[in-house]
Write a structure and sequence with these properties.
241 residues; alpha/beta; Rossmann fold; 8 helices; 7 strands
């Protein structure tokens, strides 16, 4: 990290600890509520018109020549051709690949952007009327899960894991429907899944063994589409587009 980055980080920390009067705290919190409400209202109205889609999660750092970028593009292309809309986080990397595949597949391509100090900028493959911007992560996450009929999770970092476990938790606690959660990349996900099964479930008894059935691991675009189609055939449903 460069010297100016350290200095900026120190300034941010000092700002957080700066003493504020009770009136300042109360006023700032009150205005934040209105900002949060506006993001929810705008998100609900926009996504309600779009209709349910499949969310594709993955790293913003993945380069266009990377095999996972190319695979995510193929997945989005294939599922859009099958009638599914695609939602991504709207940024670069896997998100761009998802929107790109949906765009060239002639499907609905949605981007839920977040203001970040690095990495994030919206990609050019989002439908112009379906590019939403958020300041709050938790509002954005609500839009992902509320309007998704399935979750395709590519290799990623902490943000990707956060989105994965959010979806698993909401399905496990029956807060949303039991939509398919599809992890792409056996090599990437096997270590985490082994730890969940052997340590978290078998050893520590911190989850139900049946919860592992919520997750399917695949390696190809054909397997992703098959998993989605099998889910919808089972419940006599069809894509919304």
């Amino acid at each position: 990290m460069a010297a100016d980055q350290y200095e900026n980080e120190d300034q941010r920390i000092q700002e957080k600890f700066k003493q504020k009067t009770w009136n300042e705290i109360r006023t700032n919190d009150s205005w934040a509520i209105f900002k949060i409400m506006s993001e929810f209202v705008n998100g609900y109205e926009s996504m309600g018109r779009i209709g349910p889609c499949v969310s594709i999660f993955g790293s913003a750092r993945t380069k266009p020549e990377d095999k996972n970028y190319l695979l995510a593009e193929k997945i989005a292309f294939k599922i859009s051709k099958a009638g599914y809309g695609v939602i991504t986080g709207g940024g670069p990397g896997i998100m761009e690949a998802g929107n790109k595949g949906a765009h060239y597949g002639g499907g609905t391509s949605v981007g839920l952007n977040i203001e970040l100090p690095f990495e994030q900028h919206f990609n050019p493959y989002i439908d112009k009327d379906k590019n939403l911007n958020f300041d709050y992560f938790f509002v954005r996450k609500v839009m992902f899960v509320k309007y998704s009929q399935g979750f395709v999770v590519m290799p990623g970092g902490f943000g990707t894991l956060d989105e994965l476990f959010e979806a698993v938790t909401l399905i496990q606690t029956k807060k949303i429907g039991k939509f398919p959660i599809i992890l792409v990349g056996t090599e990437f996900w096997s270590g985490l899944l082994d730890w969940i099964k052997n340590v978290m479930i078998d050893k520590m008894k911190n989850a139900n063994p049946d919860d592992m059935n919520l997750i399917k691991v695949v390696d190809t675009e054909d397997e992703v589409l098959e998993a989605l189609d099998n889910f919808y055939k089972k419940y006599n449903l069809s894509p919304n587009f």
